Amino acid sequence: MTKPKDQSGYSGDITEDCERVLVTLLRGLGPWKTSVFLVGGLAPRYIVPPDPERPVHAGTADVDIVVRLSVLADTKAYRTLEENLTRMGFVPAPREGGGTYTWRWQILTDLGNTIYLEFLAGIEDEAPGELKRLPVKGGTLNACNFPNLALVPHFFDTKEVTAELLDGKGVATETLRFANVVSYLPSKTAAFADRGEEKDAYDLAYCLENVPAADIAKALTAAMKRSHYRQVIVASLQEIKKRFCSDAQTEGYRKEGPRKAALFELGDGRNADLENTRVQRQRDISDAAEALIEALGI
Fold it and tell me: What are phi and psi of 65, to 5 degrees?
């Protein structure tokens, strides 16, 4: 699956279909719906409070969910999840080299959009990228592990989300649990450090610019005092400092974080006016990152 390199490859109707996927999935999970959490490129839509004065988040074509370990270990819960996927019309997504994924699924909606649904786990003592084998023999669903996601079930917010169900059975409202800034920053900085994609830089920048630095700093400080995840949080902040902020050798706006975020927003056109606009955006993004780092004394 090749992701678009800039904002022009995303659209509002695709993001709306992602919400429909979320609500339809939650609607059929029964008591286990409290054990799945949204992360990834759709989460900033909920992390950042709506405001007509700020740009709308670009959205995504991926729905990334972290599944709590209790669900991964429960045979009945697993079967409910697997049956829900089949009923909704999801199929395992194809691999480029042949075969299919067991943790990435896809569906073609009635609007003609292909939406990907990825199942993730946050197991601290297992390696990144390892598959978490689920309990049913012969099952077709697994979850891909990323240790930094271990924070998500402990640091999340909730929001009522209303959307039309994919199966044509009307409009429903469900409570969505999504990563808050405490758990989102470590997960997204890890993703950007690993693959360096423009969309990851943009998602980070969107949160850093649109959630006040003082609010992020307050939430992170409280989390570091009351959890054993301090080391993970500090490491993510050091990653932001490294890739978004000035140091003795390089001004922050020239770092890859601000540059890739600006390229995602504005594209890679080569005219001088566009480049000037990109550079200004890079400066703004770096300033937002530096405000957070300064507030925390990192």
Answer: -125, 140
Using alpha carbons, select from 198, 293, 190, 186 the residue that is nearest to residue 247. 293
Block residue for tokens 């939650």: 26
Q: What is the tens place of the pLDDT at every residue in 241-259?
A: 999 999 999 999 999 999 9
Q: Which two tokens stand for residue 225?
A: 């005092």
Determine phi and psi for 2, rounding to 5 degrees: -100, 125
Give the whole-number percent of the chain exceeding pLDDT 90.
Answer: 74
Residue-range domain boundaries for the chain: 7-179, 182-296
Whole-number Å distance between alpha carbons of 43 and 59 = 9
The 10 Å Cβ neighbour count of residue 216 is 22
Q: How far apart are CA 192 and CA 239, in angstroms?
A: 9
Task: Say what the pTM is.
Answer: 0.93
